[in-house]
Amino acid sequence: MTSAGSGLTVWQTCALSLLVFTGASQFALVGALAAGGNPLTAAAGAFFLGVRNAFYGLRLSQLLALPRAVRPFAAQWVIDETSAVSLAQRDRRGARIGFAVTGLSLYVLWNLTTLLGALGAEAIGDTNAWGLDAAGPAVFLALLAPMLKTVTERAVAGLAVVLGLGLLPVLPAGVPVLVAALAAPLALWAEGRRKGRTAGRPEEGER
């Protein structure tokens, strides 16, 4: 519904879901387009959000050890859920089964619900009038909040919000989310400096 409400047709929405099988990137792309952002900027934001899947792929390639001919097709299913299920298994056979079952079921259900949502959005007309444009961000906030357990993680999230919202009025749509990605290296740099200063302090017994 979010994609259809951003001006994409049913078929464009379905094609996006089929080809870009990662929810965060999809929501980032359609959100930037809905705000009137440049398509290239919107695509860049979606790309950077999907980069994490490449790191998942490096770990899963060693764990699954799939035949070379199968790897390009399996890469489409490298997402948070398939990685978590595969890594939780005790052996390679279990990891392969977990990856295949999770990937297939999620891919089919994701694309089926995308089609139903796009058709529903087309039927009800202006989705913004119903407030459905806020559904995507609300879902991600609900998923993200319980995962912020450490001080560093909360600092990254807080700084990203400040950068994103603060730059929203002055930068083109889609660009603030790219700048907000700087929150992670900035927070990690600050954390490293803090630990470095702590490590350099003499212990009480050494004074």
UniProtKB/TrEMBL annotation:
Specify where it is mainly localized. Answer: membrane
The residues that cross the membrane are 97-118, 130-148, 155-188
InterPro entries recorded for this chain?
Answer: Brnchd-chn_aa_trnsp_permease
Gene Ontology biological process terms in this record: L-valine transmembrane transport
Keywords (A to Z) from UniProt? Cell membrane, Membrane, Transmembrane, Transmembrane helix, Transport
Report the GO terms under cellular component. plasma membrane
Record localization: Cell membrane
Q: How does it sit in the membrane?
A: Multi-pass membrane protein
Q: Which Pfam families match?
A: AzlC
Which family does the similarity line name?
Belongs to the AzlC family.
State what protein this is by name. Answer: Branched-chain amino acid ABC transporter permease
